Amino acid sequence: MHVALSYIPRWYWERIGKPDLSQVPGLIQSSYVDGTGYASVLYPGNDSIRWAVYGGRQPDILQFTDRALIAAKTLDANAFRGTPDQLRTLLTLVGDEDEMAGWNPELVDRAMELLENIAGIYRVSKSPLRHLGEGPVNTCAGFAWSGDGLTNAQFVKQMAEEGHIPSIALLMEVASALGNPDYPDRQDDAKLAQLLLAGVSKPSGPQRRKTSPRGWKPKRQNRKADDVNC
Fold first, then answer.
1. Are 76 and 68 a contacting pair, CB within 8 Å?
2. 50-58 long-range CB contacts below 8 Å, 24 or more apart?
3. pTM for this structure?
4. Other beta carbons less than 10 A from residue 168's beta carbon
5. For residue 70, what is the enclosing H or E element?
């Protein structure tokens, strides 16, 4: 499948002289909201001024943040105000029909529906410790990715507490990123690693059994005859 999108946000359109954009395919506008959080929370809404017309048309896709929390990662987030079928039409160029001529339409629709259910629909967390009144926060794919991150962290913590040297070394490696400008996205991770290290005691060496000096034997006590009651 061949896809054509035009990343020409308003700020760049103004810089290049405000040309006509009425015929460009798949116009993408980028206008970021403030803050960091789940994409569903940060999204400014379908009526936001960020969807306003420029260059003779409304944008098809709005990139509204570069700091959305998705599966424990900070990523760009985009919005499309149409239906999945309309998005499919937007992403399908003339000529793609020939390429897809041999595909089973029913299977394609089922695959698209499955993809939408897995990665396109935000759902409520199943955690018993979710926030009170918390709404949809992630997709099924996102929850799976988050689960990987949480499971690995729990495993490393447990193994480090058991004295597992590679796990302790990994915590020290991540903790060393604190304040390092090369890892701006790992500062919270570094703080967590330092916190975990503070709770990990250094593994002690094997305990030696106390043994008697070589050649030493306990003295045998002589019992007096009159101490024995017959």
1. yes
2. 51/81, 54/10, 54/13, 54/18, 54/21, 54/29, 55/8, 55/13, 55/18, 55/19, 55/20, 55/21, 55/22, 55/24, 55/27, 56/20, 56/21, 56/22, 57/21, 57/22, 57/27, 58/27
3. 0.44
4. 20
5. strand 61-70
CB atoms under 10 Å from CB of 196, counted, come to 19
Going from the C-alpha of 11 to that of each of 19, 30, 59, 146, 229, the distances in angstroms are 12, 8, 13, 34, 111
CB-based contacts of 172, cutoff 8 Å, min separation 6? 193, 197
Encoded tokens for 204:
């002690």
Chain mean position to CA 89: 30
φ and ψ of 54, to 5 deg: -155, 150
Candidates 80, 37, 74; CA nearest to 58 is 80
Nearest in space to 22 (alpha carbons), one of 63, 60, 55: 55
In tens digits, the chain (230 residues) has pLDDT values of 566 789 999 999 998 899 999 988 899 999 999 999 888 899 999 999 999 999 999 999 999 999 898 877 888 999 999 988 888 888 876 555 555 566 777 877 888 888 888 888 888 888 888 889 988 888 888 888 788 788 888 999 999 999 999 999 999 999 999 999 888 888 999 999 999 999 886 554 454 454 444 554 555 555 554 554 54
